[in-house]
From TrEMBL:
CDD domains (UniProt xref): Nep1-like
Compartments (UniProt record): Nucleus, Nucleolus
The protein's name in its UniProt record: Ribosomal rna small subunit methyltransferase nep1
Sequence similarity: Belongs to the class IV-like SAM-binding methyltransferase superfamily. RNA methyltransferase NEP1 family.
Keywords per UniProt: Methyltransferase, Nucleus, Ribosome biogenesis, RNA-binding, rRNA processing, rRNA-binding, S-adenosyl-L-methionine, Transferase
Length: 248
């Protein structure tokens, strides 16, 4: 039997998550925009299996994490260390701090959550620096399906329909990064050999452990003999692409 407090602290029900997916197909004012730069090729990031799980804790909804909600998660027979939203936050900060981002070569950012939701982040938005503000933004997104720019109608983040491949440009080459791949490469040399007129899509895992979905990728490579964090993978990708495109 759950106590009264535990009854209040319920993880967002599965049926609510299903409703979110159903609403995606009917939401007005959320067009699907294909990223396609007519003058220069660009880069697209897809982050797989990000942990962004909202739950009613006490009287407020919060994004679950192991530091603040370990006891809550254990009471619900969940492993607290499977709930790591700081991983995707750190990876997005790394993207936003790159020269690729600042020079407009990042065409789009997609985040696929462990719950199966697909998020599109516009490449010109400012990622909140603090973890608390980031979680507040993501919570607003999951509750309202989009986040608008302050004082404007423009949507900076929005939930979009799966699969992610329908939102990618036709002239793209999709590369998955996986520690378990038998194809180990030096990333600078690998991207240097690719055609300059294609858009490169990098698929990076945003989870604490496990594998990404590689079914839709054109190639899967390992860039280190050691497991790397999502943020470290982004850093290596950025450095390799900046060298390829001669961005100083």
């Amino acid at each position: 039997m759950l106590t009264e407090q535990e009854e209040k602290e319920k993880i967002l029900p599965t049926e609510d998550k299903m409703n979110i997916q159903e609403v995606l197909h009917e939401l007005p004012g959320i067009p699907i925009i294909r990223s396609n730069n007519p003058t220069k090729s660009g880069i697209i990031f897809i982050f797989e299996r990000a942990s962004l799980v909202p739950a009613l804790v006490g009287k407020t909804y919060q994004i679950l994490n192991p530091d603040d909600h370990a006891n809550f998660l254990r009471r619900h027979k969940k492993n607290p260390y499977d709930y790591r939203p700081e991983i995707i936050h750190q990876a997005l900060l790394e993207v936003a701090d790159s020269k690729l981002y600042k020079t407009g070569r990042v065409q789009a950012i997609y985040v696929k959550t462990d719950e199966g939701l697909l998020i599109k982040i516009e490449p010109h938005m400012l990622i909140p620096k603090t973890y608390r503000r980031f979680c507040a933004m993501m919570l607003e997104l999951l509750q309202k399906f989009s986040v608008k720019a302050m004082g404007k109608r423009e949507k900076l983040l929005r939930l979009i329909a799966n699969p992610v491949t329908q939102h990618l440009p036709t002239n793209c080459y999709k590369i998955g990064l996986s520690y378990s791949s038998e194809k180990r490469v030096r990333l600078k040399d690998y991207v240097g050999d690719l055609n300059d007129d294609v858009n490169l899509v990098f698929v990076v895992g945003a989870m604490a452990h496990g594998k990404i979905n590689c079914e839709y990728t054109d190639d899967v490579v390992s860039v280190s003999e050691f497991p790397l964090s999502a943020a470290c993978c982004v850093r290596r990708i950025s450095c390799a692409m900046e060298k390829k495109w001669k961005i100083l």
